[in-house]
């Protein structure tokens, strides 16, 4: 398994500065201020998660996302990772090894869908609902993908960068006039 | 006749235009044909009858965490067959006194027994993560401190630690600042757990416990007021250090406070820990095992009460927790009583840490001498124009933080409190996310409530100790 991955890395064109980038379960590994970060492809996201779970990462600490609409160029991604508008950020913890990894998965704007981690980590249910609520990223096979913090009839996803602050008219109950 | 008709027609054709246009602009209400525009429509988030939800969701609401065996699944299916007229779905909250704010629970009951639970949250949502993107790193702690209002100092600490990691000044922090942070956090842990005793006692109708808990907490709040000027939402721990040095004579104040608290905890032990009625209400109620707690990402006293020795203070030491001596309290049964006992003993451990802080508090600076993040001392402003400009610049523009992203987690009284920050190199965070332990821990409720009585549900909710300000953010 690892030998194949190393071979894959060797086969990659020599344009990349590091001809043999470190990989873990097929995902590129970088270090962000001393923290281990994995950059899996969306297609192999679940495989990487399964691999990490087998390694002992048994607690999913956090699932969140970021919208890089207005900060597309500057973020630090290893060569080979195509930057997309959204990024799903998953923090996993291995209690026995006392280790943490962070996964940053690029999610394209025109197809903002991710597989759900619910069947692997049941505790991600609320966190994925929050990401859906705030960013509009949908999760396949999530048991109950509804808004969690905002009211059901809310429009838009407020943590997207193009959902401006204060642009939504607020209607108070007794205020006159049409809504 | 025709003239009047014409005059009627011409304003007619102008006037109704507007409502028609605004009707088009108005979003079509989903599913509901007639909707009162002022009614709150939340249909989809509610608990729905069993035949309207997927099998996975049914299992989740019934408290199944790990994969069920065939026999268990069959038993669950048999339980529901033909019982639709015997079960009922009721609403608990959002204004129920036991819900610690505005937590709304929907319960499916069979008689007095809880079959399914669905927590519905969001009633306190004020978009604090979005607000965080509009505030500078300097102002960020004023925002995060308002999330978990029972442990505000932890929210400030986690934000400050994350920004310091992005700035790369973690190693240069003066030891006194770090120790003051640790001292204040431990005092805050005590006050938060004391509030838990108060509310937990209140929920099972023991008003004495409430008075005891709040009375003990009051002394700690008084110390916070002395140190930071405020009883809550202190904004005391800031990026680069703390807002002010500890007040004069703090050692004596705290020594007296700890001695008093010791006696009050003994009272509390006498009133609760060994008391048969409390045992009857809490032992074996709301049980969660280690495997389930880990699977549900539960942290803090819930996880430790189920027997997992996981405490970030020991396992991933931050601040100066590697230099103090304390024990990680672990339970055995994972029931309501164990969660109570874990918190009770954690107060004693915190007192141990506070005593060590009193003994070995380092001297020196209480904030970093880095002109980039630290404003000049107040006295300098009166005599130096440069200091005034520096002060003005740092408070109006803030300081720039290099590009990068970081996640820092600390052990709050409720579990792992994490902060994920993305900086684009400006003075404001590009993305600020707080991982609230209450938000995640609340997912254990369906499991804890399953098969219990409605009367126990109240005790179970408060044993999870959720703070809705943090759940909804």
How are the secondary structure elements laid out?
The complex is a heterodimer of chains A (179) and B (473).
Chain A: H1 2-11, E1 23-24, E2 27-32, E3 35-39, H2 45-55, E4 59-67, E5 86-94, E6 99-107, E7 113-115, H3 124-135, E8 138-140
Parallel strand pairs in A: 3-6, 7-8
Antiparallel strand pairs in A: 1-2, 2-3, 4-5, 5-6
Chain B: H1 2-14, H2 17-25, H3 55-61, H4 70-80, E1 87-92, E2 104-110, E3 113-120, H5 128-134, H6 140-144, H7 152-167, H8 175-203, H9 207-228, E4 237-238, E5 241-242, H10 250-273, H11 276-282, H12 290-295, H13 301-305, H14 312-315, H15 336-360, H16 378-383, H17 385-396, E6 404-412, E7 415-423, E8 429-435, H18 437-441, H19 445-449, H20 454-464, H21 468-472
Antiparallel strand pairs in B: 1-2, 2-3, 4-5, 6-7, 7-8
What does this structure look like?
- The complex is a heterodimer of chains A (179) and B (473).
- With 179 residues, chain A is of the alpha/beta class.
- Helices cover 18% and strands 26% of the residues of chain A.
- Chain A is built from 3 helices and 8 strands, in the order H-E-E-E-H-E-E-E-E-H-E.
- Chain A has a 6-stranded mixed β-sheet.
- Residues 1-16 of chain A have low confidence and may be disordered.
- Chain B is mostly helical.
- In chain B, 49% of the residues lie in helices and 11% in strands.
- Chain B is built from 21 helices and 8 strands.
- Chain B has helices at residues 2-14, 17-25, 55-61, 70-80, 128-134, 140-144, 152-167, 175-203, 207-228, 250-273, 276-282, 290-295, 301-305, 312-315, 336-360, 378-383, 385-396, 437-441, 445-449, 454-464, 468-472, and strands at 87-92, 104-110, 113-120, 237-238, 241-242, 404-412, 415-423, 429-435.
- In chain B, strands 1-2-3 form a 3-stranded antiparallel β-sheet. In chain B, strands 6-7-8 form a 3-stranded antiparallel β-sheet.
- In chain B, strand 6 and strand 7 form a beta hairpin.
- Chain B is globular, with a radius of gyration of 27 Å.
- The termini of chain B are far apart.
- At the A-B interface, strand 4 and helix 3 of A face helix 3, helix 5, strand 6, strand 7 and strand 8 of B.
């Amino acid at each position: 398994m690892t030998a194949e991955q190393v071979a894959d890395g060797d086969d990659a064109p020599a344009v990349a500065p590091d001809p043999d980038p470190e990989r873990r379960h097929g995902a590129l590994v970088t270090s962000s201020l001393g923290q281990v970060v994995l950059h899996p492809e969306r297609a192999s996201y679940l495989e990487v998660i399964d691999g990490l779970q087998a390694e002992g990462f048994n607690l999913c600490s956090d699932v969140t996302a970021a919208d890089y609409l207005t900060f597309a160029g500057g973020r630090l991604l290893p060569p080979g990772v195509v930057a997309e508008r959204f990024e799903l950020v998953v923090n996993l913890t291995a209690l026995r090894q006392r280790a943490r990894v962070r996964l940053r998965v690029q999610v394209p704007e025109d197809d903002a869908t991710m597989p759900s981690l619910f069947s692997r980590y049941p505790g991600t249910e609320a966190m994925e609902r929050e990401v859906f609520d705030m960013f509009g990223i949908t999760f396949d096979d999530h048991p109950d993908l509804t808004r969690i913090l905002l009211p059901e009839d809310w429009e838009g996803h407020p943590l997207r960068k193009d959902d401006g602050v204060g642009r939504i008219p607020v209607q108070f109950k007794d205020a006159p006039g049409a809504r | 006749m025709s003239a009047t008709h014409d005059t009627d027609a011409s304003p007619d054709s102008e006037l109704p235009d507007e409502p028609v246009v605004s009707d088009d602009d108005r979003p079509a209400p989903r599913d509901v044909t007639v909707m009162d525009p002022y009614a709150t429509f939340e249909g989809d988030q509610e608990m729905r009858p069993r035949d309207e939800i997927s099998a996975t969701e049914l299992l989740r609401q019934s408290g199944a965490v790990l994969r069920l065996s065939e026999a268990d699944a069959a038993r669950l299916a048999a339980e529901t067959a033909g019982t639709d007229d015997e079960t009922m779905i009721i609403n608990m909250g959002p204004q129920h006194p036991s819900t610690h704010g505005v937590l709304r629970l929907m319960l499916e009951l069979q008689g007095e027994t809880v079959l399914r639970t669905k927590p519905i949250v969001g009633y306190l949502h004020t978009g604090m993560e979005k607000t965080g993107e509009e505030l500078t790193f300097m102002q960020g702690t004023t925002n995060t401190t308002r999330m978990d209002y029972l442990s505000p100092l932890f929210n400030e600490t986690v934000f400050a630690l994350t920004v310091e990691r992005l700035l790369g000044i973690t190693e240069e922090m003066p030891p006194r600042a770090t120790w003051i942070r640790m001292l204040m956090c431990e005092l805050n842990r005590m006050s938060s757990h004391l509030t838990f005793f108060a509310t937990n006692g209140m929920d099972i109708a023991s008003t004495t416990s409430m008075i005891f808990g709040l009375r003990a907490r009051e002394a700690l709040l008084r110390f916070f007021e002395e140190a930071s000027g405020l009883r809550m939402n202190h904004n005391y721990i800031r990026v680069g250090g703390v807002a002010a040095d500890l007040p004069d004579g703090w050692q004596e104040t705290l020594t007296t406070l700890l001695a008093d608290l010791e006696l009050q905890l003994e009272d509390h032990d006498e009133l609760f820990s060994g008391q048969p009625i409390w045992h009857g209400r809490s032992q074996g109620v709301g049980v969660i095992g280690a495997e389930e707690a880990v699977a549900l990402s539960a942290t803090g006293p819930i996880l430790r009460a189920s027997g997992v020795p996981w405490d970030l203070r020991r396992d991933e030491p931050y601040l100066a927790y590697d230099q103090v001596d304390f024990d990680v309290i672990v339970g055995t049964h994972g029931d309501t009583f164990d969660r109570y006992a874990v918190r009770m003993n954690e107060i004693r451990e915190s007192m141990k840490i506070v005593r060590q802080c009193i003994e070995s508090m380092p001297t020196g600076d209480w904030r970093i001498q880095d002109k980039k993040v630290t404003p000049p001392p107040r006295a300098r402003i009166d005599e130096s124009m440069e200091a005034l400009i520096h002060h003005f610049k740092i408070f109006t523009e803030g300081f720039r933080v290099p590009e990068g992203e970081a996640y820092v987690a600390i052990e709050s009284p409720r579990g792992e409190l994490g902060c994920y920050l993305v900086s684009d190199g400006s003075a404001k965070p590009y993305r600020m996310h707080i991982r609230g332990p209450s938000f995640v821990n609340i997912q254990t409720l369906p499991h804890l409530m399953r098969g219990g009585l409605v009367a126990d549900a109240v005790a179970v909710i408060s044993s999870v100790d959720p703070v809705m300000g943090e759940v909804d953010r």
